[in-house]
Structures are given as C-alpha cells and as structure tokens.
Amino acid sequence: MPTFDPANIFMWAYKFLGWWLTSLGLAPEFVLFVQLFAAIGMLATVVLLIPIFTIWLERKIAGRFQDRLGPNRTGPYGLLQSFADVLKLLTKEDITPHKADKWIFNLSPLFGVLSIITVWAVIPWASTMVGADINVGVLYLLGISGLGTIAIMMGGWSSNNKFALLGAFRAVAQLVAYEVPMIITLLIPVMLSGSMSLQSIVKAQGQMWFIVLAPFAGVLFFITSIAEIGRAPFDLLEAESEIATGYNIEYTGMKFGVWMLQEFSHAFAVGPLFATFFLGGWQGPYATEIPVLGIVYFMLKSFFGYFMIIWVRSTLPRIRIDHLMSLNWKFFVPVSLLALIVTALVDKAMSEFAPGTGVAGRAIVLFTANVLLVISVIIGIRNAAHAVRVKEEGDDHAEHGDAADSHDDHSAHPAPAH
Amino acid sequence: MQTDWLFIGIFLAIGLVFPAVPIVLAYFISPHKSNPLKNDTYECGIETVGEAWVQFKAQYYIFALVFVVFDVESVFLFPWAVAYKAMPFFMVFEGILFILLLVGALVYIWRKGVLEWA
Amino acid sequence: MSITLPQIIFLVVAIGTLFTGVMVVVARNLVHAALWLILSFFGVAVVFAMLEAGFIAVVQVTLYIGAIAILIIFAMMLTRKVMNDTEPQTNSQWVLSLVVAAAAFIGLAGLLNATAWSPLQAVSLEGSVAQLGRALVEPNQYVLPFEVASVLLIIALIGAVAIASEKN
Q: N or C: more exposed end of chain C, with fewer CB within 10 A?
C-alpha cells in the first residue's frame, strides 16, 4: 500500500487507486486504463469548470475598470451569474439553418473545445504532477492550435452563411498569422532549457525565471497569444459591438455556449502557458519539497497572467484587419526572429568565452542584451515612421506647388560634406 | 513514454465527449419548434441573395502560403534549439544562417508588396 | 500467437486510416473530402506516435493538419464555385484499373512477406530530438540539406510573389 503522503496528495491518490485495483486481481493493463481515465476525468472536469469562475472574475474586473460594479444580483457578489447563464443557454432552442452541413455543423464546436482542453494534458501543475510529460510538449501545443483553426474554418463554412464564411476566413487568417511569431518566441525557452518538454522547461527555471533572461520574448509571446485567443485589441473575430459576429453567427443555444466556453478556456489557457514558459510555472519557495504548494504558485501566476489579459482588453481599442496583418508580418515576425538570433548569439558567446559566469551574471548579460534590442527596435520604428512622415510631407508639398517653395528653402539645404 | 501518448489519446477521446454532454442535455431540455423563417440564414434581417460562397481575395491564400513556409522553418528550428546547449559556436551560426536566409526572403516579399491586405 | 493490446490499437488505427483514405476519393463534396484527408493525416500521426516517433507525430499534426490542410481548403474555396461533384464516380476503364491495383497489391504483399526482416536494434530513445538537432547542423551529416531546405522555402515565397503579381 503506498504510504500516505499529504504533500503529494494527488499522486498518492493515483497510486492508491492503482494499488487497490491490482489487489482486486485485475489485469495490469486494465488497471492502467482505469487510472488514466480517472486522472483524465478529473483533469477535464476541473479544466471545464474553471471558465465558469473566470467568466465571473472577468466580468467583475472589467466592470471595475469601467467604473461600475459588474454582476452583483445573482447570489452574493454575483457569484451565481455564470450558473444562471449556463441554465439559460441550456433552455434555448437549437436552430440549425437549413442546407447547413449537419455533421460538420454539430462537430465543429466540439473540436474547438477539444483543441483547448487537450492543451492541459501537457501543462505541469507541480513538480510531480504533469499529465503527459512527452518530450515534444511545445510542438504538441502548436499542433493542437492548428486543430483549433480547422474547427473554426469548419464552423464558419458549415453554417451556409456568407457572413459566417467571411468571418471564418478572417479568423483563420488572423490565427494562422499570429502563430508564426508565437512559435518563434517559444523557441527561446526551448533553447535556454535544452528540451521541448514543458516539465523540463519549468525545472530549468529553478534558479532564474526566463522572463529575466528573455523579457522581450516573453512580452512578444504574451502579445501574440492575446492575438491568438481573439481578445482585444485583436478581437475583430467576434467584434462584439458589431452585428455580424463572425463564424459562430448561426449557432444557437448550447452550441453557442460551447463556442463561448472555447473562447474563455482559451483565454484562461494563455495565463498558465505564459507562467510555464516565462514565469517559472510551479517554481517557488519549497515547491520541490511540498508539491501541492507548486499548484498554489502555478495558479497564482496564471491568474496574474489572466488579470493582465483583462487589463489589456479593457484599455486598448480594436485594431483594423489590415493593420493587424501588417503588424504581424512586418513587425512581429522580423522582430521575434531578431530576438531569437540575438539570444542565441549572446548565450552561446557567453558559454564559449566566459564559461564560468554564474546564474546572476548570465541573467544580467542576457537582460542587457534584451534591453539593447528593445532600444534598437524602438529606434528602428522611429526612423521608419520619420521616413514615412517625411515622404508624406514631400507629397503634400508637391501638391501645393509654388506656395511651398518658400518653405523648401529651410529644409532643402544639402548637409555639408562630412 | 507509451503511457504518455496513451494519456493524450484518452484525453482526446474524453475531450470530445465531455463538451457533448451539455449539448445533449440541451437537446432534451430546450423546445423544438422549428419553422422555415427561423431556419433561414441570417443576413442582418434581410432575405438572402445568392448562394453562400464568397468571391474572396487571393490575399488569404498568400497569407496561408507564407504561413506554411514559416511553419516549416520553425519546425526545422526546433531540433536545432533542443540541441543548442551542447553545440559549438559555428553550429549555432549555421542555424542563424538558416534564419537569415528566410528573413531575407521576407524582406523581399515585403518590398514586392505581397504582404498588403489591399 | 496471442494478440497484444498495441496490436489491437494498431489494427483499429490502420483500418480507420485506410477507410478515411478511401473516403477522400469517394466523397462527392469537395470540402468533405478535405475533412476526410485531415482524419487520415491524424491516423498517420497516431501510427507515428505508436512507433515512439513522438517528434514526427507532432510535426505531422502541426504541418499537415495545421498548415497544409488549411492551404488546401483556402485554395479550394478560392477556385471552385461549385463544390459538388455530379459526374459519375467511375469511368469505363474501371475493370482494368482494378486488375492493375490488385496485381500491385499482391506483388507488394508477397514481397513484404518473403523478405527476411532482421530484427531492429533496440536504441535508447533518450535525447533523440537533440540528436536530430545535432545531426542537422553537423558538418559531415546533414547541414547541407538543412541549408538547401531554407533555399527551397525561399523558392516557395518567390512563388507567392508570382501569384500576387499574376492577380494584379
């Protein structure tokens, strides 16, 4: 019988279940199946129930940002509001548009939520608690988000509605575009920790969180993740203040509820991912001796990330679709590649030419490199904007013709030869 | 390792079933009074005109193509990043050469105006 | 020889993948065919995972399902106004093609059966991705194909330029 270990209670329960079933004389493979089913069932339930809490949290915090109270009538502090919403959605009629492709129409929301839930299969909750510690965890996350884009495409297409199709195209274009800088910034924690498994990445942050070693990459990952979940300022996908709400326009009742569940679960998944890759996951004082404490640290960091998302959402206005795409391809992709190159060069140069530097020294050097990178990027943007402005003023002057000649005398003097 | 992938496989199966539960529940609880007007496609309150296809821009396809190229690039870079810690300097430089070639191509297509949403 | 659980799972996955492959060709609606294709990609990924090639399995899902399938669907919706194939499913030469396909299958099956496969060396799978990464940039291994692959990707981007200028 496995010894009772209160500091590691979930793993103890897992092993206890296995021991109890084996003592009943069942085949070892069957025991493994039952153990996995129990673990997955519990994990999936927790993951699907957390959005109910975070929806309430989001409405309260967003309300406070807008100087109002948020829901406070249903239950104390409005805690039962999410339950009321779920009950309402359950009782709404399920309208399927005629000529819609029935199978795909019904399966798309399920695939959408599937792509979000399975993200939690690889996220480490504590030093001994991780669902599946596969050695390709980071790439697995990317593959799963690809599945999510297919689900949105199918949802939009199967609705037999022009607006839904157009909304789905735009949504897929945005998601797919912002995946590129997200993947590239994720290469940096993989580089710094030497492994793609999320548990190894968290364990490698035992002495210094990666947000200190690669702050620019962290911020970029955060911003592109916000674009991936379709949140403000990138929420053209849902466009809440406009009538045609995009790909889920024809979904009613609980299927719409499932799409909303997908959106909120995705929003909450960014916090834990950011915490895992850059904020040290479950690392904290005594996290390795008392694994349950790791869960507490992890949840604190993820909710901090979620709070940042709500903060950004309440503050910034929406970006237009063409600005969105040019921001991605002309700014985020080159800049994230630049950050990757700089981090790779600086870290390797340090370990080749100064192998003795400790953790603090390495952190200082990398942080300084990141700061210099940010400064040079800002200077680059300023010069580019200045060039565009000068060109536009030149065009204006060309339009105004003779009246501009007197002005040109000031600016047209060639610089003296240096 | 096999247990991990089995975990993911069962997770995928359960992840497909769990969200189906509220939908099935809603099927039993909600009313079923369909009429042709309700089942009509939504077009901001007007009658629909034409089939549901869109003459959409080639720009979508180009963005997807550029995405495929950069996706393949990053998949190549993942093993390089995993082996990064034990690599001598010139091997890191080979990887950076790979990246720079593609940055050059990105600048080229930028200058050619392919990335305009237009 | 008793059948083990991995063998059962493999049989189910293999038959599923073959079925989805057949449905890709048989389906009348083009978008349905694309979805069956996605399912067959997924079946192949599962086979890779069962072979303990986790990296390749995930690359299969990321690249094929997440990028190429989306490209295919976009291309379909850009070029075709009519999504349904109303022509007959078979043409007049179906008997001859059936004979050729059956002959190819019997030939291959016989060949695979007759070969004396030597048992594979059991290799340690620790750090296999790191080994792959190292091999990609090792001067006397695969560094040249690695850099040539980047040139190949540049060619694809130039192709995008060609498409864009054509549309203009």
A: N
